[in-house]
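Give me the fold.
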Amino acid sequence: MSSRPRPRLLLVGGGGGFVGRALVRELAVDHSIRSLHRHASTEERSAGVEWVETDLGGKVDWDQRLRDVDAVVNVAWYRSGSEARFRVLYEGLERMLAASVRAGVARLIQVSVPEAPDSLETTLPYLVYKRRFDHSVERSGLSYAVLRPSALFGVGDKLLGVMMRSIHRYPFFPMFGDGACTLSPIAVTDLARVVREALDSSESGRYDLGGPIVYRYSELTDAMFAALGKRPRYWRLSARGSLRLASLLEAVGSSLLYRYEVEWLLSGRLGLPPAALRGRGLERLEPYLRAVAMELRGDRSPAGAAPPTLR
């Protein structure tokens, strides 16, 4: 048995969110975790996580929060919001980073996002402040990894599960552009495994992370229809029409889809190569689609044809 002491791991924000829950499941078995975010999580409590109610953009005694901490994992960010909202969180994370340097934290893992079109990188507050913090981490002098996963899938995701529910509910599904843009979804559980390996590494760098298969968007949506036992029926939109639809949804207060997400998808920049992981391979998407389909139908038996094997 190893005599290596259990490290203290600080999850900055999101411990009760989609990515944070996956990290807790992966890491709590052999790490002590101090999780900072606003709302208590049943999953964290049952895993023995030390939760500290914290507004990351507010006044935080970071020297106290980082006491005895060996490694920091940051998953905190917003999906949407004003320039001021992102700026306040960014400034709070910068204070956390400065305190991590003072404390001599051994390793910092920043969960970020892949490259987007230049128009978004330079004007969208979501990306402008995300990149500023990424660059601060890279210049901090700490041992670090900046992880940039493609679209994530898993229970509670905000993309593929939402698409499945829409296909199940409505007679037609929007096809953005010609359907040829690519993406390589990666399981959130595999991202958690990547975080584990990154914590054990001493190499610093920026890493783009895709799933095992790069799909055309139309292949992916066809597979979703098949998983639900339905014939594909599309509302075909030009690239411009796709952006207009997303803008309209935003204008009426919907969080189903944001314009920047459609622009990002249409750029084809989410078709990343597969993440390198030791041991077992990356999870494929088809079992997840079948599980979501069965839940939506309220049964345990397949309906119609099984999802095709995607290239």
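The domain at 160-182+213-272+279-297 is CATH 3.90.25 (UDP-galactose 4-epimerase; domain 1).
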